[in-house]
Amino acid sequence: MEEHFFHLEPDNLKQDTFKLSDEESRHFVASLRGNTGADLWLLDGIGTAYEGTVSEINGKSVSGIIRRSHENYGESHYDIHLAIGLIKGNRMDMIFEKATEMGVKSIHPLILDRCVKNNLRMERVKRIVVSAAKQAGRSFFPIVFKPVNLTAWLKAHEDRHKILCHITGSQSIADYLGDEKKEICLIIGPEGDFSKNELYQLKKAQVEFANLGPRRLRSESAAMMAIAVVNQLMED
What we know:
Layout: E1 5-7, E2 13-14, E3 17-19, H1 22-31, E4 39-43, E5 48-58, E6 61-71, E7 79-85, H2 90-101, E8 106-111, H3 122-136, E9 143-144, E10 148-149, H4 150-156, E11 162-165, H5 173-177, E12 183-188, H6 196-204, E13 208-210, H7 219-235
Parallel strand pairs: 1-4, 7-8, 7-12, 8-9, 8-10, 11-12, 11-13
Antiparallel strand pairs: 2-3, 3-6, 4-5, 5-6
Helix pairs in contact: 2-3, 2-7
């Protein structure tokens, strides 16, 4: 059977045995035409991947044995946290999907003055993140926080290294990152940019303004570009 990753709920792991959820069991049996004896990769979402073998298919319930475990499978040795203004429609879905695939550890949606929406369907977001993590083979599923305003987010992260990607930035992400290779918070604005008051708050909070180039990017493009740049810098 071609290699596939499955989400294994931690509660469904008992010593050296596993049981897939109803949804994952259906996927294995109905979509993949899986059989007993098949080898699987299992991701618990909290930092461990397992190699397992299916030993029993009871109706639509799939279970088996664990052969090996791998801590921090598919994870980087540093942490990227993304704070981004809420944007509408599928473009926000793309951010959750691609940020997950690119290794982000947490995503913080922000309710900003010029946001066109102020809420999220968290169950839908969870499905997107889990699907993307399985696609990428990540053992840790990014934490997605409920939307908050900028003031609350800045207060909660006042001790973190924060870089805002903005057209007015005078230096690059590399200039601000320096030799730091452990943790960074990237901040991306909404479709209509930050308000003057929000930019004032960010400067007052000593957030560093980094420029991603001479072109004005959409929010999702800026997020993906910034994450890719930090990944390359951190890995180097």
